[in-house]
Amino acid sequence: MGRPLAVDGEPTPLTGELDLEDRQALRRVAGLSTELQDVTEVEYRQVRLEQVVLVGVWTEGTAWQAERSLVELARLAETAGAQVLEGLIQRRDRPDPATYIGSGKAQELRRIVVATGADT
């Protein structure tokens, strides 16, 4: 097989034993290797998603608004790389200063975390 011709009709220069086409093919292979490494890193991160249970305190507005707020929080958590396992909403006039949610809801949250294996 002859050497390929450049734009001016002259043979393309060779570098060592590899012509331009072979060198470009090697670059593509190297690029694929980098892409594969990137995909592997993404897959590894997906395996290690933090599993969470979300908690919201509903102080004003309707129950529908509180649920929409929790859905928005879930989307934000997923965007940040978490896997949302469950969500709880508690109606209170104001958050409890000690636990944010009431002690009964805190016990319910504890049971859910244990049952689902959530990280947080």
How would you characterize this protein structure?
The protein has 120 residues and is α+β, with helices and mostly antiparallel strands. The chain folds into 2 domains: 12-48; 49-116, no CATH class. Helix content is 49%, strand content 16%. The chain has 3 helices and 2 strands; from the N terminus they run H-E-H-E-H. It has helices spanning 20-47, 63-79, 103-116; strands at 50-58, 82-91. The protein has a two-stranded parallel ribbon. Strand 1, helix 2 and strand 2 (82-91) form a beta-alpha-beta unit. The longest helix has 28 residues, at 20-47. The radius of gyration is 29 Å and the shape is elongated. The protein starts with 19 loop residues before the first helix and ends with a helix. The model has no long low-confidence stretch (mean pLDDT 80).
Features:
120 residues; alpha+beta; 3 helices; 2 strands; 49% helix
Helix/strand-derived category reads alpha+beta
| Unreliable parts | none
Strand content: 15-25%
Terminal CA distance reads 65 Å
Could you report the average pLDDT, rounded to the nearest whole number?
A: 80
Task: Give the total of beta strands.
Answer: 2
